[in-house]
Amino acid sequence: MKKTLLALVLPSLFASTVGAVEVYNDNGQSVNVYGRAYAGHDFSGEDKNANYGNDSYIRIGAKLKSDISDSLSAFGRYELQWDLADGEKQEKTKTRLAYVGVKSDVGAFSFGRQYGAVTLVSDITDTAYTNAYGGNLGVGSDHDGTNRDNSLLKYSNKFGGLQLDASYRLDDSQSDAKSDAAYGLAAAYELDFGLTLAAGYNASSPTDDYDASIFLVGASYKTGPVKVAATYSQGSKFLEDDDAGLLFDHTAYELSAEYKITKQLRAQVLYSAQEIEETITSATEDSIDDLVFGVRYDFNKNFRTIAEYRINGVEGKDDDFHLAARYSF
């Protein structure tokens, strides 16, 4: 009977645009389904940048939980995204998240494709309203277990205002000369007057010839309708040009300030800067210099429209403008 109910509820939810988040809850077992439809377009100058044109996707996810005992539960999560920028002929489907774990009084242990520990820090300023900007600290998907990555073992727990995350990416490389293994540690402490402080470290040894690492710190402060945040990262041989076979050290920082004008309208300014240094010649370059102004209007908790304008300070790069509408449930 329970399986029959679930089989009936899930298809009806996916077929409609609006549905309850919790679709099943019985005898300590629950299923929550969520999703997003994002339709965006990037407008740039004469020299079209990498973001130019259609930027649209559909995202569907599910969170599952099952109570094993009063103090122990199992959980799982799966999230799938269809990138629609290239139209129907070149549809790109990717699994963003797929992991399972157990949670008890001593914390949560999980394994699979999930977020690495240092996202606890990088997410502080990864707050751009659209899909096009931000996230320029060096942390990235499928990059040494720093963001979403495969074969990731993670521990997370919260002690009052202190959250601790640790992650280890297992080696998936088929080559004896290379390794995908990496580990990350992060901590964030939230004070009761609106201030949060965070720090994280991630390291790997991709080959026997070199080690790669990144260190991050961040802080945010919220009072009333105002929220400000700052993050800083420093990487050692953490960025790579695969085509040229070059490694780079880097420093980066992001600053953000948001003001909630009304219940539905808010505005944000986001600044991102990154400098890279080639490890052999020590040649330096300002690889990112973005100043983004954004406005967001929430019609309700599900639907919003967004506009962001980027002033690109990197020499030879054009400014651009991004418009989007987003529906979430």
How would you describe what is shown here?
This protein has helices at 2-15, 119-122, and strands at residues 22-26, 29-44, 53-67, 73-83, 92-104, 107-115, 148-159, 162-169, 182-190, 195-207, 210-223, 226-241, 246-260, 265-278, 284-298, 303-312, 320-328. By secondary structure, it is mainly β. The chain has a 16-stranded antiparallel beta barrel. A hairpin with a 5-residue loop joins strand 3 and strand 4.
Tell me the β content: over 45%
Number of helices: 2
CATH domain topology: Porin
For the secondary structure, the number of strands is 17
- The Rg value, from CA coordinates, equals 21 Å
Quaternary: single chain
The helix-strand sequence is HEEEEEEHEEEEEEEEEEE
Helix and strand content put the structural class at mainly beta
Number of domains: 1
Distance between the terminal alpha carbons, to the nearest Å? 27 Å
Trace the largest sheet across and list its strands: 2-3-4-5-6-7-8-9-10-11-12-13-14-15-16-17
Largest sheet: 16 strands, antiparallel, barrel
Could you name the CATH homologous superfamily?
Answer: Porin
Poorly predicted runs: 1-20
CATH class: Mainly Beta
What percent of residues adopt helix (DSSP H or I)?
under 10%
